[in-house]
Amino acid sequence: MSTKNQDDPIVGIDLGTTNSLIAYCDESGPRILVDDTGERLLPSVVRLGADGAVAVGREARDHAVEFPHQTVHSVKRLMGRGSVDVADELALLPYEVVEGDHQTARVHVAGRVWSPPEISAIYLRTLRDRAEHVLGLPVRRAVVTVPAYFDDAQRQATRDAGRIAGLQVVRIVNEPTAAALAYGIGARGPGPGAGEVQLGDDSRDGARGGVVSLNTKFRPEACTHSADDDDQRRSDPTSPQPSTPSPCSTIAVFDLGGGTFDISILRLQVAAGGGGVSQVLATSGDTHLGGDDVDQMIVQLVFDEIHEQFGRSLDFPASTRQAVRQFAEATKIRLSQADSGNIQVDLGDGRVYERTLTCDEFDRMITPWVDRAMSCCEQALRAAGVEVVERVVMVGGSTRIPLVRRRVAELFNVEPYTALNPDEVVALGAAVQASILAGVNRDMLLLDVIPLSLGIETMGGAVAKLITANTTIPARATEMFTTYAEGQTNVKIHVLQGERELVKDCRSLGEFDLHGIPPMPAGLPKIDVTFLIDANGVLNVSAVERRSEKAASIQIVPNHGLTRQEVDQITAASIEHAREDMTAHRLIDLRNQARLDMRAIERQLAKVGSDVDDAYRQQIKVKLAAVGAFAGADQPDADAFSVALTDLDHSTVRLAEMAITRTLQEDKAGAAGEPPS
Fold first, then answer.
1. Which residue intervals of 265-401 are DSSP H helices?
2. Domain of residue 657, CATH code
3. Which of 35, 76, 295, 423 is catalytic?
4. Residue 436 lies in a domain
5. Alpha helix (H) residue ranges in 63-198
6. Share of the chain above pLDDT 90, in %
7. Is 4 marked active-site?
8. Same-domain check for residues 380 and 304
């Protein structure tokens, strides 16, 4: 990267209706720039006081109910539009909208008239100041995103906002194109195609017992697959479906934010020298469909039930209305992750409203709202004239709602991309575009192979690698694991990246829980863990318990934030520590196996103890004590430990046969209605 580009960075900005963000991309990839308190999102809200005081972001949003006529939000709806165009919007805006020069829509607040670009410039200036503080450099240039349907006047208004904020808008990028860029879609060559995995819905059943890491794997499967596997996947809709190799792909970007919904169908054409060109085939949407509607549904439910419980005469002060709105938003967020959410409102005079909203109730309540979004998607598909969409990128915080994700997967018949934070994906893509314009060298990782091994944590802090470094992509691997604790009904899947053998020496990529496993003895459940990484480097990890068919999943972009230098350092460290790492991993496996075997032998002794002669019992106890001593030692000799464990296994073969015989006798007697002998 040249000195000029280092001293004059280009940032990426998502200037949103509800929230705005700023991001920067260097050799390690794109990242969101945060403020002094760690906040990533800047609410697109400003309060303008008559005395000239200005509050921006969270401060303005949190007190909007107290200052309804001084607080401006959703000004993006007015950008570049005439007063006649926004007539339908006025009833939804608490501030005064007036006609300005050339019949443009303006905002009248705090005793003066403001143009929408002037309001937007306040957000942009705040974001610019944040970037300058984080980067330690003056920021003068930016790539700014806009909806695909923005016309020339709206795009020019966005440029004007940047100019007022002291920013040169070097490129206007469509939001759906930016979202695709964040995932690297269209940024690499044609390649061999991308595999998509159809993952089951997260279980909402409760789980008993603690969260215990998975125990030792039973069998590994190769990362590659045969033609027979392809035939099986084509006949099984739950299996990963590879897409057809093509330099031209069709992408749907599903953008459901706080106040608006947009669906865009793009065609990405990969150029001969790499890079991509996007063509917008069709757009559709609803400018009044978003997460705020869900909040309002919950608010209305609460108010209706409060009136029913405490009487219609009850009035709600501004502070109570604000509190209920915050409770509603918090409940919506919780229901994206849990079975239910609790709402409690203190109404004073000893009156307390309390309500638990379950996921099933929530899904029924929002189904008509989701139906509206699906209708827009169907309309966009018809307008685009396409029947198959190869990838769906999810944008906007409201896409976290499980029902939304399920319905999108059903409509497009492909598992949507959700690995990147949906609130941030557009800003990240804008930063990627900015880095291209700035000439940043991001050739830090090979595009067609896995740079570092991928695996999961097993009991004792070891790493079971499912996909090894330098495997070509797309790649798929499945291994079977089991539980370690008796009656375990909940398993934590911890996804890791690196070449070392222990969790503490690897990079954590994410974790998720598999709930609702039927309680069984340790070692009996069979849990299939599948890693599938597609041609864009997006990793899908799924876990399925075979007996109950309970399933859970996570989606990750493993290579975000990694440079080639860091990969080389990680690989070098694994070589340097290879011997000690392998010994440590071997000891963990030996300890795990020893404890499982010792528990099983103790159960067998309890079952057939009366049939075991004293000499044999004493022999078993001696060998148990020897293995137990190795298992409890800090640094036992691994070879001696292995010999002792093998010796114990061989010595207890007769005991196991006696226990099996007793079990068969009991089963036979039970079937005949007789007491066991």
1. 291-310, 318-334, 359-384
2. 1.20.1270.10
3. 76
4. no
5. 116-135, 152-164, 175-182
6. 28
7. no
8. yes
Candidates 26, 160, 202, 255; catalytic one: 255
The per-residue pLDDT for 74 is: 86
Active site residue 354: no
Pick the more confident residue, 407 or 17.
407
What domain count does the chain have? 4
C-alpha–C-alpha distance, residues 45 and 33, integer Å: 19
Cα 344 to chain centroid distance, Å, stands at 29
Q: Is the dihedral of CA 382, 385, 388, 391 positive or negative?
A: negative
Per DSSP, the chain holds a count of helices (H) and strands (E) of: 16, 29
* Per annotation, catalytic residue among 26, 35, 160, 175: 175
**Domain match, 505 and 599 both:** no
- With respect to residue 348, please indicate whether it lies within any of the assigned structural domains: yes
| Boundary-marking domain end, from 528, 560, 575 | 575
Q: How many CA atoms lie within 13 A of 677 on its CB side?
A: 7
Residue 575's contacts (CB-CB under 8 Å, 6 or more residues apart) are none
**Average pLDDT of 503-515?**
88
In this structure, are 637 and 622 located in the same domain?
yes
pLDDT digits (tens, 9 = 90+) for 410-454: 999 999 998 889 999 999 999 999 998 888 755 434 346 677 889
d(CA 620, CA 602): 10
The CATH number of whichever domain residue 141 belongs to comes to 3.30.420.40
Same domain, 62 and 39: yes
Beta-bridge partner residues of 241: 196
Say whether both 97 and 174 belong to one domain.
Answer: yes
Q: Is the peptide bond before 518 cis (omega within 30 degrees of 0)?
A: no
Query: Would residue 395 count as lying in a domain?
Result: no
CATH of the domain at 222: 2.60.34.10
Q: Quick check: is 221 catalytic?
A: no
Across the chain, mean pLDDT equals 81
Q: Is 378 a catalytic residue?
A: no
Q: What is the DSSP string of 519-576?
A: P--TT---EEEEEEE-TTS-EEEEEEETTT--EEEEEE-TTTT--HHHHHHHHHHHHH
Which tokens sit at 647? 């010796």
* Residues comprising the chain, all counted: 677
Q: What is the pLDDT of residue 671?
A: 61
The pTM score is 0.69
| Residue that the structure tokens 């006529």 belong to | 69
Together in a domain, 531 and 599: no
Mark whether 285 and 321 lie in a shared domain. Answer: yes
- To the nearest 10°, report the CA torsion of 515, 516, 518, 524: -20
Write the CATH number for 369.
3.90.640.10
Same domain, 378 and 324: yes
- Answer yes or no: is 437 within a domain: no
Angle between helices 425-438 and 175-182 (to 10 degrees): 80
Q: What residues make up the domain containing 156? A: 3-182
List Cα–Cα distances, 509 to 211, 420, 481, 498, in angstroms: 18, 12, 20, 10
